[in-house]
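G.,

No rush on this.
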Amino acid sequence: MPIKETDIVLDLGCSVGNVSHLLANKVSHVTGIDLNPDFIQFCDENKSSNEQYICSNFLDLDFSKLPCLTGLLGSFSLSYLADPKPYLDKVYMKMDKGSWIALLDVSCFISGNMNKQSKFYEKVRNFELESCKSGVYDFNFGAKLKPLLNKSGFKVIHCDENVHDVELNFNGCAKEEVVAIWRARLSRLVLLKRLLDSEYCEFEREFLAFINSDSHEQRNSLQFVVAIK
């Protein structure tokens, strides 16, 4: 990210503020926003003098009440929007020339961590590609980052289409805590459970066994794009 000491940054979906803290050490001011009140309370209790936190859906955020933004970071956040382009258009209009936006998001991260020979692979892959139509979550949003930013007027200056991550995009056997995270995630995938129906338990066992094997491979499941106005 083309960070400057004078930057004023918005962190979309800040969670417990870890990245906001990192940014605060390098820029003038950081505003973190998250819908989870417990996260925001934790952030408020641990913030530095150049950090502020807002509990809100970022669609409802009033940009007029914020300092003029020169940077925006979105990690796994815009993929929850049924149509993210109007929001990116709004961000573009609120930023001065030379400001930057950095987006990190997933690209078919379930099928990307499956054995391609699995009988479930095509069903799961198609489920991810079609999920955006439900308006609930876009499992393939990472692959759309570049064209979306371009359409909103931004110029892409950096793109990593295969970001290494120990949980979402890695090689070899997963760490024990990562397997536990995936087990919990799979228990929450209601729509995929509905699709696979009585076979879901078999899919779950197979998936967890594969990420816990040496044959598991990193496969473009996480993408990071930086652009400027």
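When you get to it, here's the other one too:
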Amino acid sequence: MAECTDLSISPSEAPLVAIALGSNLGEPLRQLRSAVQVLAQTLGIDVLACSPWYRTVPVGPPQPDYWNGCLIARTQLSPWALLKTLQAIEMQFGRQRQEHWGARTLDLDLLLYGDRVINTAELTLPHPRLVERPFVLVPLAAIAPHWRHPVLGETIQTLRQRVGDKGIIAVLSDDVGETTFATAADRPRPELP
């Protein structure tokens, strides 16, 4: 894989998207890996890279630690169709929306859709809390450090450095199959094609 240094999109190419994945109920790592497989097998989605998995401190009510990661994909789906697809996959994994920021079997958040800026009742892009969440920025910076936030113009790596690694407990690399206590800054970045 080549390093993800240029995330510009030509009009003839399918847009690049960034998706955050999280889970803290059931078997989180198995569910996250399975969700990546489901996304990769979904018509109109071509998964290009997936970050390592990070164990993170939960935000919200008392609950188990989360496992979080991010992936980069190309999509033929519109932003709204992609959002509905992500929500359908969450439901497939038993997601129930009972408590705001509560525990969940699977959480899939659309973070970025190329350089699109959207603000509707149904969808806001870039994700409105992207810039304040280490549990999203740390894994996203591991696979797309040079992607520029379409509103702020800053790279994901710059945003990650600003929020730090607070709440990031451990990283699990699917390549290694073991947990290593580290942060994204300590690990080599996977490269995109």
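The chain has four helices and nine strands. The longest strand covers residues 66-75.

Enjoy the weekend,
O.
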